[in-house]
Design brief:
358 residues, alpha/beta, Aminopeptidase, Alpha-Beta Plaits, 10 helices, 28% strand
């Protein structure tokens, strides 16, 4: 393994379009790369790119994702060594850093542990198909989630999620008459949900409060029936489960008889402990590169939310890149930071293999 090998891996992976549900081409590329670099590699039933190295009793899962959101960003490396392209940060950069690090592990680490790298499908979709499949087939002792945290950052948790689809229908009436339109009632429903979210703030920070946002709104009138629909996204703190949030929203809207609500995206918040063998190994490796480890929690969601229920083991998210660039037209990854993350991961995984306990 050389930095040039690692650069070729991430640049070529970013060049291959891989919208959620359309990951076959990039999965073939990634498994081919892993097979050529000492992995036993295959594409599983969910379309995941899976590679394994090592034969020891400790199992470390490195779960990244290879799908992206839409957005055509011309892929190139500029004069400053920055890779531009959709997926460079979220999250092919972190996934490729996992692959390059495991490819570089010494024999001592491979004798002591088994490392399983997964490029999951459909993380950017509500299905989380890849993660839901692999969590049923693997029981690791430690888990790294491939998401951008910055090379010094260690992400311990993500907020939960619930999506509410509100629909209001009623017969049409003249606007000069009395009564409220379907759009009026939909707006009232949104005001109530937003006010409840604001009341959950207790001064401890945004991670511990509900965030409510409108994802789409639409109102139509065919002269007979008024119809208004809206989608509200809720980001949930650890103390509020998706079911509790659903029950609350139903209670808030119960006296709006024409309002009907359905829910999707039930994902519970997750927050892992700060001090365990995994976090210690990562902190030592970051400091060895001159960095100061920074613990983070994120207001979004990731596959950490999905797998935490069946994988109750030391878990954190790590990867090069600035998460503020996720899904934006400016998505880009500094390859020098990527290189540093590969070095940190290689050192941390080597330390884990020699000091961790199944």
């Amino acid at each position: 393994m050389t930095p040039e090998d690692a650069h070729t891996l991430v640049v070529e992976a970013v060049r291959i379009p891989s919208l959620s549900g359309q990951e076959a081409a990039v999965a073939a590329f990634l498994t081919g790369w892993m097979a050529a670099h000492g992995f036993t590699a295959h594409v599983d039933e969910a379309g995941n790119a899976v590679g394994e190295r090592g034969r020891g009793p400790l199992t470390v899962a490195l779960l990244g994702h290879m799908d992206t959101v839409p957005g055509d960003i011309p892929v190139h490396v500029d004069d400053q060594g920055v890779l531009h392209g959709r997926g460079s940060v979220d999250a092919k950069g972190p996934l490729c850093a996992f692959m390059a690090a495991v490819a570089a592990l010494p024999d001592a680490a491979l004798d002591a542990a088994r490392f399983v790298v997964i490029g999951a499908t459909e993380e950017e979709a509500p299905s989380s198909r890849g993660a839901r499949h692999v969590m049923q087939t693997l029981q690791p002792d430690m888990v790294l989630i491939g998401e951008p945290s910055g090379w010094e950052g260690l992400t311990l948790g993500y907020k939960g999620r619930l999506v509410a689809r509100i629909t209001v229908e009623r017969g049409n009436f003249h606007t000069a008459g009395e009564g409220q339109s379907a759009a009026d009632d939909l707006t009232e429903a949104w005001f109530r949900v937003r006010a409840w979210a604001a009341r959950t703030a207790d001064g401890s920070g945004i991670f511990d409060a509900v965030q409510a946002t409108i994802q789409d709104l639409q109102a139509t009138n065919d002269g007979v029936t008024q119809r208004a629909t809206g989608t509200v996204g809720l980001r949930l703190p650890p103390r509020i489960s998706p079911q509790e949030a659903e029950d609350t929203v139903r209670d808030l809207l119960q006296d709006l008889p024409d309002a009907h609500v359905t829910f999707t995206g039930h994902e519970s918040a997750v927050r892992s402990p700060k001090d365990n063998a995994l976090t210690r190994a990562m902190r030592v490796a970051i400091r060895a590169q001159g960095g100061t480890p920074v613990f983070k929690v994120k207001t979004g969601t990731s596959d950490m939310n999905v797998v935490s229920e069946l994988w109750p083991v030391p878990t954190l998210a790590y990867g090069p890149g600035d998460s503020a660039l996720d899904h934006t037209p400016e998505e880009r990854l500094d390859l020098a930071e990527y290189d540093r993350a590969v070095v940190i991961l290689t050192a941390a995984l080597t330390r884990l293999a020699t000091t961790g306990h199944p």
